[in-house]
What does this fold into?
Amino acid sequence: MARHVKKRSHKAGLPPGTPVHIGERKSETTRVKLMHFDDDQVTERDINAPDEVRALRQGPGVNWFTITGLHEIEKLTAIGSAFDLHPLVLEDVFNTDQRPKFEDYGEYVFIVLKRLVNDSTAPEVMTEQISLILGRNTVISFLESESGIFDGIQERLRANRGRMRKLGADFLVYALMDNVVDNYFAIFEALGERIETLQDSLIARPAPESLRTLHALKREMLFLRKSVWPLREVVSALQRGDSPLIQNETRMYLRDVYDHTIHVIDTIETYRDMLSSLLDIYLSSLSNRLNEVMKVLTIIATVFMPLTFIVGIYGMNFHHMPELDWRWGYPVVLLSMLGIAGGMLLFFRRKKWI
It folds into this structure.
C-alpha cells in the first residue's frame, strides 16, 4: 500500500527556516537547467555551480531555471542564496508535504503546487510537489524528479508556438500552472472509471475485496482533496492580487485556470458522494443477498413442515393404527406428501414469493 503520510517529527525543535528535506529521494543528483528565451531565440544550458546564477539572471528576456532533486540541502541552499531567496521559502521547498499555497515576498512570488501521479506500479494516486518562484524576468521551478511534466511547454518555447515567447515570466508561470491543473483531469478520469467498475461489481456480487477497494478509494479521495482543494485559494490570490509581477493580461488567463480548478474540486466532491453511496449499495446488496438466502430456506422449511407432521404421526407405531395394516397405505401417504408439497409450491408461485 502506498504511503501518503510523510514524517515531520525530526523537524521538531529546529529554528524557523532550517532546511530539512521531508520526503522521498526521487532523483539521483540535484540538477539545474536554464532555458533563456526572448522573441528571437531560445538557449539552453546546464548550471554546474551556484555562482553562475547571479550573472545569468541579468539581461533581457526570460530565464527559466529548472531545479530537479530536492535532497541535496547544501547545494540547494547555495542556489537559494544566489537567488536571494528567504530561508522560509527554502524550508517550504524542502518540505514536500507542504499544502498548495501562494506567498508574495515583494521582489518575487512563491507558489506551491501538487502534481498528481498515477503510476501503474502503485495502487494509489501519489503526489509530487512543484514549487515555483516568479521574479521580474526569472522563473524557478523546483521538481522532486525528472517527471517530464513540463516537456510540452519546453517544446512550445523551442518551436515558438503560441504567445509564450512574446510575453513575460508571469505568463510562463501561468502556463506551468495550467499544465499541472490540466493533468488533474486525466487522473480523475481514470479514478472515475475505477469507481464505475467498483459500482458494477458491488451491484452484481458484493465481496469483502470490494469493500477493501471502496475504503482505499475513500482514503485516496480524502488525500486528493487535501492536495487540490487549497489550489483554489492560490489561483484566486494570483488573479486578484496586486503584485506588479503579474500583468493584467496574464490575470485574464489565470481566470481560466481558476475555472478549471473549480471543475476539479467539483469532481472530487462528486466522487466522494459517489463513494459514500457505494457503501450504502454494498450494505444493501449484502442485505438483499441475505434476504434471498433466508427466503429460500424459509420456503424449504415451510414445505417440509406438513410433511414432517405426517411422518411424525405415522412414525409413532401404535398397535391400533388401521393404516399400518392397509396394503395401499404407504404409496397413498407418499402421494399425499408429494401433493401437499407441489400444492404449496404452486401457491407460492401464484403469490410471486418464488
User: Anything to note?
Assistant: Residues 4 and 185 are 21 Å apart (CA to CA).
